[in-house]
Amino acid sequence: MVQNLKHKNKKIKIAIIGGGYDSTISKTHLRSILATNKFTIICGCFSRNRNKNVKNSDFYKIPLNKVYSSIDELIKREKENIELAVVLTPPHNRNKIYYKLAKNKIGIISEKPFEANISEAKKIYEFLKKRKTFFVSTYNYLGYPAIIELKQAIRKIGKVRNFILEMPQQSSILKSTNIKKWRKKDIGVPNLHLDLASHLVSIMIYIFNQIPQKVLGFENKNQKYKYVDNCYAWLKFKKFNGQIWFSKNAAGNKNELSIKIFGTKGGLKWKHSSPEEILFNDGVGHSFKIDRLNPKTKYLKISDLFTYSPGHPSGFLDAFINIYEQIFNIYRFKKSKYPIFLDLKQNLDIISVINSIHLSSKKNIWQKVQSKIGR
Ligand SMILES: NC(=O)c1ccc[n+]([C@@H]2O[C@H](COP(=O)([O-])OP(=O)(O)OC[C@H]3O[C@@H](n4cnc5c(N)ncnc54)[C@H](O)[C@@H]3O)[C@@H](O)[C@H]2O)c1
């Protein structure tokens, strides 16, 4: 019994694929992995460029002989030494990496989104499902305690009637931004959708536990680079409607993510600039703040989910730490302590919804969202 618990509390041995020192999101993963004290980074294949790849020995503080020049080599030499691999490459052709890992019984932690291409996403979904591969994705906003709380608080507003989710940014017009080459070329579903809409759709699926029946998208291309950098979409659900706006061409907006949900008995609002509170309007004119000091909350009051006490704001990194804490629980104890994750099917649904938004925009019609894949 004691022996068994000892094993269950053992750190999880992981490999990192992609996520070199030059990646935009690698430092956040590295810091949150280390903050949990529940993982050991054994090895990695961080870049296809040899010079860049080896520099990651220093970044991740692992020996040079644990930096592999290919994923095949990494799997061949390390498959007995690792339990999970964190996939931090751009979303295109992720399926090939998933195949290799799953065939070798290595579980997967993947950065969002699941895959860039819908038909590849469907195939790899079936493959991972059949093999029962361990799979979690890091949709980091689902690690914010207030967003976890929002899923509960939805009951306060009666029946949902409509919602607006927004994620405006400004990188495509900001002169100082160094945009990576792959982000300037759209192949199929625009990178804007893979980057930003996937977050909004993850929040939508998380809170409502359903996907829209049809969508109407309206995209704008960047004049200089010819990639899509602004999009509006209307979403028609069975019993309510919603609207999302996501943009990298919204001057002055530094990731002003916001959630507004309106129901028959009131409304709820959350914004990224005040991440620890939800605003509740009861529908007869009263407004209340739901925050960490409110004893009636289910999740916001739990200190486990924060780095320190109220008045010492938590944010992006803390949300990521929450995600890695729960990855440990799911992998070792088969159960997340808090509801933070979408399942494999929901990860595929996100690709299906953003693909439909893109098709709708291209064809200028309402587009049905396929929802029966693999069910
Ligand atoms: N959760 C978030 O808030 C968030 C923020 C930024 C990026 N992301 C996601 O993270 C992923 C990576 O984005 P990024 O901005 O870090 O990209 P990036 O281009 O900045 O970095 C990608 C890294 O992967 C490496 N790489 C690429 N292909 C590889 C391969 N085949 N084998 C090994 N290494 C490879 C590159 O060398 C680089 O180090 C994307 O899916 C993106 O959507 C998520």
Describe this entry's structure for a reader:
This protein has 2 domains: 2-138, NAD(P)-binding Rossmann-like Domain (Rossmann fold, 3-Layer(aba) Sandwich), CATH 3.40.50; 142-313 and 340-362, Dihydrodipicolinate Reductase, domain 2. 34% of the residues lie in helices and 22% in strands. The chain has helices at residues 2-8, 26-36, 50-60, 71-78, 94-103, 118-131, 145-153, 191-208, 316-333, 344-363, and strands at 12-18, 39-45, 84-88, 107-111, 135-138, 160-168, 214-221, 228-236, 241-247, 258-263, 266-271, 278-281, 287-290, 367-368. The strands form 2 sheets. The protein has a 9-stranded mixed beta sheet. A 5-stranded parallel beta sheet has the order 2-1-3-4-5, with helices on both faces. The protein is globular, with a radius of gyration of 21 Å. 43% of the residues are buried. The structure holds nicotinamide-adenine-dinucleotide. Nicotinamide-adenine-dinucleotide is lined by residues 17-20, 22-25, 45-48, 52, 88-91, 111-112, 138, 140, 180, 194-195.
